[in-house]
Amino acid sequence: MLKTAGGAVALNLLPFPFKALEASITPAPAHWAKGPGEARFRIDGLDKVLGRKVYARDYHATDMPGWPQAERPVMIIRAVHADRPFNGLDLSGLPPELQPETIVTGQQILQDGIILPYGINYDYVVVAGNVPDYLGQPVAFLIFKDRKSYRRAKKRLQFNNAIQQYGAQTSPSPPVEYTPLTDYVRKASPTGGKDLFSYTLNGGDKDYTKEARTVENAINAEIANKTASGEWVQFQADFSMQAMDPMFMEPEAGIAWYDRNKASLSLVLGTQSPDGDISSALDIFSSDNSHNPIKTVNLTSCYPGGGFGGRDKSIFTLYLAIAAVYANGPVRIAQDRFEQFQAGLKRHACDISQSLVFDKKGQMQALNARMDFDGGGRKNLSPYVAQLAGLCVGGGYEIPQSVIKAEAHHSVNVTGGSQRGFGGPQAFFATETLMDEAAESLAIDAIELRRMNMLKRGMNTVVGGPILEELRLGEILDKAAHHPVWRDRDKERQKHTGDGQLYGVGFALSNQAYGTSGDGMLGYVSLGPDGSLQVTSNAVDMGNGSATTLAVVTATYLGRNADVITMGDAASFNQLQLQSGYDGANPGWDNPRWVKKVSGSSSACLTAFHQVHAIEQASLVLLETAILPAANALWKKDVDRRSIRWRNGALTSPGNRPLDLSEIARWIYDNDGYAGAMIHAYFQAEWVQAEYQIGNRPYRFAIDALGLFKAGSFSPILVNRQNGVYPSDESARYSRTTFAPCGNLIALTVDPSSGQVRILNSISILNAGRIITKDLVEGQSEGGIAMAIGYTLLEDMPPGLSGPAAGNWNLNRYHVPLASDVPIHDLNLETLLPLPGDRTAKGIAEAVMCSVAPAIANALADATGKRFRDLPITNAKILEALA
Amino acid sequence: MSKDIRFSVNGKPVTAPGDEPDLPLVDFLQEDLGQTGTKFCCGIGVCRACTVAVRRHPQAPLEPMLSCSTPVSELEGVDILTVEGQSVDGHPNALQEALLTNFAFQCGYCTPGFVMAATVMMDRLRRSPVKMEDLDPFIDNWLGDHICRCTGYVRYYRAIKQVILNSPGLVA
Ligand code: FES
Ligand code: FES
């Protein structure tokens, strides 16, 4: 199918600042920048610290120009049984004045031709008579006429399960796997690590699955033989990990208005996937018998109050869209925390059964892993989370033979999504605690064992994908081994003999990937007549600092930070008229408008490398095609490109007078030059590069689509790419090629009488590459460690009705870390200095939490002599182990 | 019809209609006054994102108040201070400036709660300074129950301590 970005979304390229979109447009506050390329504080920070409106929850219809003022609150009633038919709602307990104005049922949604878009496989709202597919599936949307009646009615309806009528219990539906299933089998030559069989090499074969079974059998036979003969040693263990709530602080909320006359739907929300949300919102009303035609979707993307993956393709957006078409005016859904716990995306509960096989010297020979993710009620991104876990379970090691199966299945539990780490935290927990067990049993130092097996450039991952960069795992291991917390751990343990506390130190290593298997990035940089710069991105800043980062990286080529940043703007980029997908006859890369993937969701790990590339390339295009020609004209000669430098906002070249950017901008506006560059870039093992004929010469950029804006114009001139260098088909099966390795040392004490754990020190040693804004990197690391401490020790939610699906969970029973749970004065991050000449900045936001859980578990094993394989490791589990 | 409830928010008199006395203060602020700086997160008095400050009579010390769990019926005659009242002509005050320049917050949703709790804490310190060695536990006592999901708290504590140390007379 050939698809255009955002479907039929109308384009509103608006001059900034535009009132209606102020939630997502941030004019830079005074003094936010230190100098070119440097931030004094977050560009979005002032609005947030002053309590201005920036979050979706802050907005009401009355804030939106042109919207009707009356706003109708919506309450979603959610199924509390998934093993019996839902027969209807009984709202007779509500007095007439509190009755909803409109009740949206599953039957009505079906009748009105609202369809399920790709990847959504269960009804939005349960049709009466059907058994709900999962707990928390909506059974009705209640639309109230005003806030007061909503608030009063909600008091009577929430926690009142008697309003939901059910039939007799039936047998539960059989489990369904969410496809695609991950099946990575690799066999490499014992020396030199050359792949004989792998997913990368053979994944394109018609009968890959059959071939993989043959290789798997051979691997298993060899393991059986060699372990029986004593040549190899096998370590096997089963791990289980609980589901986890992202617990971003702003429960999902948004407003929407369906203007029937104009067939336009306007949404205001905080989402990590504005592009996907727009196209899904269009898709669901696109059937021939749709009663609610929609030609335009306008999405105002607000700064989310936290994300962590929990707002990535959340079904919440579609609920808002559906509620809007049934209401007589704007609607608002603002979930409370109980509702957010009941329905918001979770980190998957996961079971892993794993074995690591070593020869007697400690060289890894084989890995066998089965990973089972509880996907919960909706598919969301579950199979892809399982897929990345399949790569991560190989850790940072070269393993000549591996058999990895990872799958996610449907269940009645709350839906799992793309939480921070995307399967990595689960996989690294299993691999890195098992590594420690192996080290202990083989009597090899735990860090040394890792060093003996570490992945290096030129080797392959368990998927068969090549390591194309210096991972520098050895340096991380060296730093850990020489750190006083590791080196002096026995001395420190002695000190605790008197206080009755058990002291332990643990280490773990992760080699978490960032980005996805193919990433399409969008960026737009424009120059105002006064020399100001505006950056526009479809990316969303969930607090990870992408707005700030993208605002400082214009300085790389333009010597100046952005003056205005617009985030979450998916619609502007429709002007590039990109096409993606395959329709059989479609020439793919030969079509200059075709790109392999237009865009994806925003995750925190996509900023430093991917989004920054897009903005830097757009800046470079502006420099080459607009600023240099203008400067040459002003200098009245063609200067050597290599001689120019930006100094204090002025372009300099030896022997020529400095030109302030404002002077250059004036010339450009007076002489009809280019003042804006909108680009698309695609990364799959490398950036696509191509040539663009502009004026009378070709330019080469690491982008695959380009639109140039003449000064003062709001529509781009599209420049076709030519002579492109495109990724190989095989590289689509590498899984990932970009990694942000991290090692963690954790020192802790355990109180043997209570099982209470106190984390004393956390040391993270991170290969972050080039660091753009140190404070942002450190902040991500600190937050990642706190979140991982919660995951490892505190946060627990059972499946089924004893968990949040029942609708009565809140922070009184779900314990996220407080300051006292985090060693706030002893949280240290060491980053490796970038290698000379290496400008690669790495996306680290997910990587920084992956090695923490196993480091804590390994420290606990060091302290107590007991291995813990089930998360969370609660005080009760520790006490039980010590008993 | 029950009596309307009169109190002030950031020095301005406001009236909450008496017919919804159990309306939580956070809803009144956000929905009736359109002041959305005070945040809603758990709604049950655990996370403290919704913290505002209250002065019960002109000379009284500031007290923290959980606006999600305080019905407007309890507010007759009091002064409520919210994050919107902390800046001066749109400029951050010293505390807010320190939070900014320390990169103390990320998504910022918990920030108004920290700002208001720290404001109350500093009001207490102004009235009775603590010894330097007691400062960390004092801060922990006032802020330790606030939840921030993004940051790991390190920079909040650093920034707030910095402001206290830079404000004369708060540490004995
Ligand atoms: S919203 Fe959590 S304490 Fe008030
Ligand atoms: S900064 Fe996001 S919750 Fe604190």
TrEMBL record, chain A:
One GO MF term: iron ion binding
Pfam families assigned: MoCoBD_1, MoCoBD_2
Domain of life of the organism encoding this protein: Bacteria
Transmembrane annotation, as ranges: none
InterPro entries: Ald_Oxase/Xan_DH_a/b_sf, Ald_Oxase/xanthine_DH-like, AldOxase/xan_DH_MoCoBD1, AldOxase/xan_DH_MoCoBD2, AldOxase/xan_DH_Mopterin-bd_sf
Limits of the Aldehyde oxidase/xanthine dehydrogenase first molybdopterin binding domain: 224-454
Listed Gene3D superfamilies: Aldehyde oxidase/xanthine dehydrogenase, molybdopterin binding domain
Domain Aldehyde oxidase/xanthine dehydrogenase second molybdopterin binding: 481-567, 600-823
Name of this chain's protein: CO/xanthine dehydrogenase Mo-binding subunit
Organism (species): Aestuariispira insulae
Lineage: Bacteria, Pseudomonadati, Pseudomonadota, Alphaproteobacteria, Rhodospirillales
Automatic annotation (TrEMBL), chain B:
PROSITE patterns referenced in this protein's UniProt entry, alphabetically: 2FE2S_FER_2 (PS51085)
GO molecular function: 2 iron, 2 sulfur cluster binding; metal ion binding; oxidoreductase activity, acting on the aldehyde or oxo group of donors
UniProt-listed Pfam families: Fer2, Fer2_2
InterPro entries reported for this sequence: 2Fe-2S-bd, 2Fe-2S-bd_dom_sf, 2Fe-2S_ferredoxin-like_sf, 2Fe-2S_ferredoxin-type, Aldehyde_Oxdr_Iron-Sulfur, Beta-grasp_dom_sf
Residue ranges of domain 2Fe-2S ferredoxin-type in the record: 3-86
The organism's place on the tree of life at top rank: Bacteria
Name the record gives this protein: Aerobic-type carbon monoxide dehydrogenase small subunit (CoxS/CutS family)
Organism from which the protein derives: Aestuariispira insulae
